[in-house]
């Protein structure tokens, strides 16, 4: 009997999310090829890579917004490859898009409650994680700063009480002080609250600090996988894979 097949089946059963040899893209265009990964319950995974390599497409594929041409996606051991995105959301996949998609004509609090589902994440927990949101709860969605909108987008996703949260460049374009505030909140969410998370982020060192494991995508394929801390400490590998210089600045990495 194939030992590799037995191990693959065991991994899918034990994992919260599994991808097996996934080839996906948009229409006839292939963006991802032969992508396999496993994420455990309460696990955290960083997705890094240079601009346009398929990181955001991987999140969209997990959520069901791309065409999967080959391979399978498993959620808690069940094949969801052909399941539409709204049903994946009901199963417990939460997604925070780059665009944030705040409802401008609703108050901040209405933005939170409109998508809420029963569970431990409620208004009190959302405001405890992001105290700034409580102060602004009566403001309309179009009256919030970029940083406040990003906090709201994350909090709103949490209000659906997902088992897994997909974060697509949550720190993009924000002031350094807001980046630090959001990073602290994500760290609490991941390490204290045990929220399973997949994080796409152009701030490589931040992503590596917030996650347990990391994969690096290159031309739609996984070029590296391993411990986030080990990669963070390997300056040469960071420079080779995503353009991070010895000073810790990011060269060509992006979404």
Quick recap of the structure?
The protein is of the alpha/beta class and 255 residues long. The chain has one domain: Rossmann fold. The chain has helices at residues 3-14, 55-63, 85-91, 108-113, 123-129, 131-135, 146-158, 176-192, 204-210, 228-232, 235-242, and strands at 17-26, 29-39, 44-48, 67-75, 78-79, 93-96, 164-168, 196-200, 213-218, 221-227.
What Rg, in angstroms, do the CA atoms define? 18 Å
Instruction: Sum up the overall morphology in one term.
Output: globular
Give the number of domains.
1
The helix count comes to 11
- State the low-pLDDT regions, or none: 3-10, 246-255
Mean pLDDT: 90
Q: What is the topology, as strand order, of the major beta sheet?
A: 6-7-8-3-9-10
Q: State the fourth-level CATH superfamily.
A: P-loop containing nucleotide triphosphate hydrolases
| Helical percentage | 25-40%
Compute the separation of the termini in Å: 41 Å
State the major sheet. Answer: 6 strands, mixed
CATH structural architecture: 3-Layer(aba) Sandwich
The count of strands amounts to 10
CATH topology: Rossmann fold
CATH C-level label? Alpha Beta
The run of helices and strands is HEEEHEEHEHHHHEHEHEEHH
Q: What structural class results from the helix and strand content?
A: alpha/beta
């Amino acid at each position: 009997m194939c030992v590799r097949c037995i191990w693959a089946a065991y991994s899918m059963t034990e994992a919260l999310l599994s991808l097996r040899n996934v080839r996906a893209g948009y229409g006839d265009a292939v963006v991802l090829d032969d992508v396999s990964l496993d994420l455990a319950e309460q696990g955290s995974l960083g997705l890094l890579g240079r601009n346009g390599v398929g990181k955001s497409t991987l999140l969209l594929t997990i959520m069901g917004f791309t065409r999967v041409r080959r391979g399978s996606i498993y959620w808690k051991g069940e094949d969801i490859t052909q399941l539409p995105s709204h049903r994946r959301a009901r199963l417990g996949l939460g997604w925070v898009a780059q665009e944030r998609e705040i409802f401008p004509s609703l108050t901040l609090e209405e933005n939170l409650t409109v998508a809420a589902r029963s569970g431990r994440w409620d208004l009190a927990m959302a405001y405890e994680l992001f105290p700034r949101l409580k102060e602004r709860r009566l403001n309309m969605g179009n009256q919030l700063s970029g940083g406040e909108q990003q906090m709201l987008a994350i909090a709103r996703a949490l209000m659906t009480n997902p088992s897994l949260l997909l974060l697509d460049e949550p720190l993009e374009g924000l002031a350094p002080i807001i980046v630090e505030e959001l990073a602290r909140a994500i760290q609490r969410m991941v390490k204290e609250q045990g929220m399973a998370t997949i994080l796409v982020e152009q701030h490589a060192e931040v992503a590596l600090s917030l996650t347990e494991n990391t994969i690096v995508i290159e031309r739609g394929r996984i070029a590296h996988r391993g411990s986030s801390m080990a990669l963070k400490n390997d300056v040469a590998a960071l420079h080779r894979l995503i353009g991070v210089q010895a000073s810790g600045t990011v060269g060509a990495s992006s979404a």
